[in-house]
Amino acid sequence: MQVFEQRRLLMIETQLRTNKVTDNRVLDAFGVIPREVFVDPERSELAYIDEDLAIGHGRFLLEPMVFARLVQALDLKKEDSVLDIGAASGYSSAVLSRLVQSVVGIEKVESLAEFGQKKMSEIDVDNAVILGGALTDGFNDDAPYNAIIIEGTVEAVPESLLEQLTPDGRLVTIVKPADEVQGRALKYVRSGSGFAHSVLFDANTPVLDDFAQTRQFEFGA
Q1: Dihedrals phi, psi of 154, to nearest 5 degrees
Q2: Does residue 217 sit within a domain?
Q3: What pLDDT sits at residue 179?
């Protein structure tokens, strides 16, 4: 067995299963997609570390455990469409592609979006695309989506992104208001004319400055 395949299995057994990731479909997706492909060769030895991995341009891959728990919370179905905001070099979109019908990844760094698209083609991912664009805009052209994931910590979730969800659509991310120290993984669900949200777990991941000044969506009193 090749060294990266061994590390991938070790990631699943020691980082994911031991941290409440129990969905076999999610575990299988993590087991298939080669994380090392989505980083520069000189950093491939770090591909499976249990922390956020910087990949240049101020961008990063989320810690595997945090990413896996967010994905699991989306309760994805094979027929779903997903919007992956902050797709970076494409690893997250590739993993999601194993679980759903289609994935649109949005990455603000054009060179990373191009790199990610190239790498997904190399491993025969044909139901996902990474587009360059502002993270806070999402991608309204293909909306609505059954699920949206924001890959990093945001100060607030823009209402405009929540509006890109289908009825009963789900959005997950890490939220940490400017005046708080601890970030929390939150899940938003579109229900009727509004959005309910719940806390999943505590987490601190790299901050997406793009969302720093966005207005918090106001829930009903």
Answers
A1: -120, 150
A2: no
A3: 87
